[in-house]
Amino acid sequence: MGKDIFRGFSDLMRGRTTAIHAEDVEHASSLADNHPNLGGRDLLHAAVMKRLGLHRIVSADAGFDRFPDMERLDPAKVEDWHSLPH
Which residues pair with 31 in a beta bridge? Predict the structure, then answer.
């Protein structure tokens, strides 16, 4: 079952990933000034999202709730996603 989930996720993500740019790393560093309790990975994800104009992230990591311009979609609550506008 676990491998099937990973395969499904891999299929879903194919063509939906992006490279990290140097300016993303710099932006993550500046975000750390306002979010000192967040880890580097969260900050980097936030920086890439901002560059791409994205506002939603699927993550169990509640650290993303600290960004007022982002909406975290909890993977444990998929049924709640159906009411969201596309």
Answer: none
Answer for the pair 63, 71: CB distance below 8 angstroms, yes or no. Answer: no
> For every one of its 86 residues, what pLDDT tens digit does the chain have, with 9 covering 90 and above?
678 777 877 787 788 788 999 999 999 999 999 888 889 999 999 999 999 999 998 888 888 998 889 999 888 888 887 777 76
How distant is the alpha carbon of residue 68 from its chain centre? 13
For 21, 40, 55, 82, the CA distances from 86, given in Å and listed in that order, are: 27, 29, 12, 9
Token pair listed for 12: 């879903």
Give the global pTM. Answer: 0.75
